Structure formats: structure tokens, C-alpha cells
Amino acid sequence: MAEKDLCPCGSGKKYGECCEPIIKGTVAAPTAEALMRARYTSYVKQEINFIIDSCEEGEKIAEIDRKATEDWSKKSEWHGLKILRTEKGTEKDEEGLVEFEAVYTQHGIRDIHHETGYFKKIDGKWFYSVGQVKPMTVVREGRKIGRNEPCPCGSGKKYKNCCGR
């Protein structure tokens, strides 16, 4: 199986047999983890409607910023999803927890989005409810530019007097 056919969620299955049917709405996510994997894959595939539609609605739930979500999805290079733990969230449960790390690069900086997501089953369908993001150390990809080196933007100025301000 070609790597391009594999689902971005890291399950080892083909995209068409894993997250695509959940994202396209032909099947419901059977577990909280399956929904989490489909949400990650939606960021990779830029399926913003699914990300928004898979969130619980209600007064106490924060509104999703569609533009910010779309920008994060499109301006990031996604490297993988790692499920760290799950609690409940099976087909028999009404709520569940999924702790995960999503690795991505944006603006040349590799980052890890580490979150514990809480999920609820409403009318037999799983929804993302709320999440707690855990701060992580940012790791730069590539060489660090010295303050006195020429600016990489091509201005001819030193980095400290140009983009490094």
C-alpha cells in the first residue's frame, strides 16, 4: 500500500477505510478516539466543516473561530498524531477522554499540540466537547540565524536590523 493512500491519523489503514467515511458523514464515529482521529485527519485534509460540525453546541461551549481553524489547517505541515491515552469513550459509553499529541510545522517552527480532549455522545453520535491544551517546548527546524548575519529576506541588512526585530 502506498504511503499516500494511508490515513493521516496513523491507524495504518487506507484513508477510504478509516477516517474518510466519518469525515464525509457516511458512517458515525464509533468511539471518541475514532472521532479524534477523524478530527486530526480533517486538519490535514483541510475539511474545516467537519471540524466545526463535530463540536458540541451549547451556551457553555466556546464558538469556533472558522478563519483561525482554517488558517491553522492550511498553513501547517502535519507530521502525525499520537494517542497517549483514552478513558471511556467506547461504543457503550456516553462520554470519553482522549489525550493526544499532534505534531506540525508552521512558519519553520516544529510544534506539538498536546491536548486532553473531552467527548460526549449526544443522540448516539460522538462530539468533541472541550479540551485542555498542555504547553510544550517549541523546537526550531533548521539552523538559527545569528543577529549579525545577513537577513534571509534578501534586504541586505543585518538580521537584527530587519526581520529579527
Summarize the structure.
The chain is an alpha+beta fold.
How would you portray this structure in words?
Strands 1, 2, 3, 4 and 5 form a five-stranded antiparallel beta sheet that branches. The protein starts with 19 loop residues before the first helix and ends in a 25-residue tail after the last strand. The radius of gyration is 19 Å and the shape is elongated. Helix 2 (32-45) packs across helix 4 (66-74). With 165 residues, it is of the alpha+beta class. It has helices spanning 20-24, 32-45, 48-53, 66-74; strands at residues 77-88, 95-106, 109-122, 125-134, 139-140.
Q: SS-based structural class?
A: alpha+beta
Q: Give the N-terminus to C-terminus distance in angstroms.
A: 48 Å
Indicate the overall shape: elongated
Beta percentage is 25-35%
> What value does the Rg take, in angstroms?
19 Å
Q: How confident overall, as mean pLDDT?
A: 90
Helix content, binned percent: 10-25%
Keywords:
alpha+beta, 165 residues
Topology, pairings included?
Elements: H1 20-24, H2 32-45, H3 48-53, H4 66-74, E1 77-88, E2 95-106, E3 109-122, E4 125-134, E5 139-140
Antiparallel strand pairs: 1-2, 2-3, 3-4, 3-5
Helix pairs in contact: 2-4
